[in-house]
Specification:
By secondary structure, the chain is mainly β. The chain has no helices and four strands. Strand 1 and strand 2 form a beta hairpin. It is globular. The relative contact order is 0.29.
Length: about 80
């Protein structure tokens, strides 16, 4: 079942939140991309400010968004170390 919208939340080692949206492929897989060298911002009209890569543990979690085919759900929290 492809074409489902997914929101991925990524919390960096400093506790700052980044959000990315993706769409599932026919197998239910998806890819979410984050630029870890840009400072997180809620202002979409400002160009992103560069920052050094923060080393440590990042926590990621995916959520379904308004799916007509699946119940609301959330993945397990995944820890990624840089």
């Amino acid at each position: 079942m492809g074409g489902e919208r997914v929101r991925v939340s990524l919390i960096d080692p400093k506790g700052e939140l980044r959000v990315s949206e993706a769409t599932t492929d026919p197998n239910g897989g998806f890819l979410a991309h984050f630029d870890l060298t840009s400072k997180p911002s809620v202002d979409a009209h400002k160009p992103p400010q560069k920052q050094p890569l923060v080393h440590g543990a990042y926590k990621a979690q995916a959520f379904t968004i308004n799916s007509p085919n699946a119940a609301e759900g959330a993945s397990n929290v995944i820890v990624i170390t840089r």
